[in-house]
Amino acid sequence: MRKEECFYLGKIVSKFSYKGEVLVKLDTDEPELYEEMESVFVSMRNNLVPFFITRSRLHKSALLRIDFEEVTSEEEADKMIGSELYLPLSFLPKLEGNRFYFHEVIGFGVSDSVHGDIGIITGVNDTTTQALFEVDKDGKQLLIPITDDIITKVDRDNKTIHVTTPEGLVDLYLS
After folding, report:
1. DSSP class of residue 128?
2. Are 8 and 86 in contact (CB under 8 A)?
3. Cα gap 131→103, rounded to integer Å
4. Which has the closest alpha carbon to 104: 146, 66, 69, 71?
5. Nearest to residue 14, comparing CAs of 73, 114, 83?
6. What pTM did the predictor assign?
7. Helices (H), 28-154
């Protein structure tokens, strides 16, 4: 399994017990969806290694306490701290309406209510306070905030996101 075929689930942040249990900080709004996993991929030395789960349960909000079959001691758990966890993209629940996963919209066109076609989404910058679409229009990069106020429709059939950008935003990039 390659990372490109997976999504980031979270990171092992600490060990929990002397028996090798670990705590994972999940990167999700719905941690309860991941309580019943049978296995997960752990990133180790740039490879995704499958680990089978004996037992997992939520621990204080977005932390998941996991007991891996192959990890039975504190020393083994120590070696895993900081490792990232991944699951295949097929495990993601299907989203509808204007809800979407960032990876899902890469390559979608962007149509503005005033300017029409303003380019193709080449990436999503979520390192800032406000997540942004990175849109390419004839070699120029536009940054469009990802908000419910701006996104008017996600058209999966035509691979287009319809937006109403604030006045002057598109002109700032294209003039």
Report:
1. S
2. yes
3. 13
4. 146
5. 83
6. 0.70
7. 74-80
